[in-house]
Amino acid sequence: MQTIDKLISAPWIIPVEPQGRVLEDHALAIHEGRILELLPTEEAQARYRPETHRRLERHALIPGLVNAHTHSPMTLLRGLADDLPLMDWLQNHIWPAEGRFVGEGFVHDGTLLAAAEMIRGGTTCFNDMYFFPETTGQVAARAGLRAVLGLIVIDFPSAWAGDAEEYITKGLDIHDRYKGDALLSFCFAPHAPYTVGDDPLGRLATLAQELEIPVHMHVHETAHEVEESVARFGMRPLERLARLGLVGPNLLGVHMTQLEASEIRYLADTGAHVVHCPESNLKLASGFCPVQALVEAGVNVALGTDGTASNNDLDLLGEMRTAALLAKGVSGDAAALPAHTALRMATLNGARALGLGESTGSLEPGKSADITAVDLGELETLPLYDPVSHLVYAASRHQVSDVWVAGRPLLRDRQLTTIDLPDLRRRVADWQRRIAEAD
Ligand SMILES: CSC[C@H]1O[C@@H](n2cnc3c(O)ncnc32)[C@H](O)[C@@H]1O
Ligand SMILES: [Zn+2]
């Protein structure tokens, strides 16, 4: 008998890799934060002597969900400006509110609220793009979440930095200080082609290659963005980014609702990744990302919620369902984006896009024990013929019961273990009062 930290057993384990596999009555053996083995529960009990054995009787265990694009502090702006198209929403509502309120305190409390919501929804890793990324990283790490911090660049001054040069310098400083952190990693996050000039973009292309970190950017979010680029630069944004050396395996293009067939081929040929944010795209009426065509071309497509001011939640189970349904509607093919593919987009594809494919995104020996348990015994998911069908087409985030990151429980029986809820509620109420007063 081998002594280990933990066994978690459940009627279903969906490891995501290999694709399509569902293991029945299996257990995950976990030691020092990593998955040692997946094996039948009976065998696990004969082979291992665990410090703790979590027996889940009606649950599916899946890899922790990976939110490949969000702006976590924007939880504090949830519901502030609805039913508007992107540029009106940004220029006349969101940017003015951010100009008034964004600072370290806003980012701290907004990230804390986001962390609580993400953990309760089964997310274990998120890729963020916002001001004061160090504060987001500190809050995320304290909550026990895995976070990829976007080192933002935008040609406008903010409370965080004055110009593109300062954004880059501050980002590099954070990168150097936190390099090697167990939970935090980095990507460059130039905001969008229409807000960052050629010089900083060219510099980021070089730095991303040198430092081997991804570049995460809103690209081709709307038809207006593409038309404006053609008028201003004589070319579509993707071509401009390609000429600046940014399109390749380092790039995560977020949204990508406007894509011609040649651009889809180009993304596939260069190994660039796409982050699909279906609910934000629907709410801002930005357009439809051609997910099925991208997948067929071999592009790695991940899933993101975007921020809660355009979604308005951080619910990746819900996002999977929207993505799966929308892909069928857009392609006219009911077989487009089946449930296993949607789950893979919300887990392993996100991890791979973020350069974390070796450590998270699937339940495999050697990987970090980043795990989400979903109770499929609720009435809403009965009867049960196929657990993956229910995860994508029927379950809600309220059925997420337990979440672990690197083997550490962040949610146990729906209770947050790392976040003080009454304190969080007080902080959010305070922001609500301040923001509502100014509105
Ligand atoms: C430079 S920090 C990030 C910046 O992005 C803004 N934002 C949030 N959602 C979107 C979106 O869908 N498209 C473009 N910009 C977005 C956010 O408000 C911050 O200012
Ligand atoms: Zn965004």
From TrEMBL:
Segments crossing the lipid bilayer: none
EC number: 3.5.4.28, 3.5.4.31
Designated gene of the protein: mtaD
Gene3D superfamilies the UniProt entry points to: Metal-dependent hydrolases, Urease, subunit C, domain 1
Cofactor note: Binds 1 zinc ion per subunit.
Physiological role: Catalyzes the deamination of 5-methylthioadenosine and S-adenosyl-L-homocysteine into 5-methylthioinosine and S-inosyl-L-homocysteine, respectively. Is also able to deaminate adenosine.
InterPro entries per UniProt: Amidohydro-rel, Deaminase_MtaD/DadD, Metal-dep_hydrolase_composite, Metal_Hydrolase, MTA/SAH_deaminase
Domain Amidohydrolase-related: from-to ranges: 61-408
CDD domains in the record: ATZ_TRZ_like
Cofactor(s) annotated in UniProt: Zn(2+)
Enzyme class: hydrolase
Record key words, sorted: Hydrolase, Metal-binding, Zinc
HAMAP family in alphabetical order: MTA_SAH_deamin
Domain of life: Bacteria
Family: Belongs to the metallo-dependent hydrolases superfamily. ATZ/TRZ family.
Binding site for Zn(2+): H69, H71, H218, D306
Protein's recorded name: 5-methylthioadenosine/S-adenosylhomocysteine deaminase
SUPFAM superfamilies: Composite domain of metallo-dependent hydrolases, Metallo-dependent hydrolases
Reactions catalysed according to its record: S-methyl-5'-thioadenosine + H2O + H(+) = S-methyl-5'-thioinosine + NH4(+); S-adenosyl-L-homocysteine + H2O + H(+) = S-inosyl-L-homocysteine + NH4(+)
Binding of substrate, residues: E98, H191, E221, D306
GO MF annotation terms: 5'-methylthioadenosine deaminase activity; metal ion binding; S-adenosylhomocysteine deaminase activity
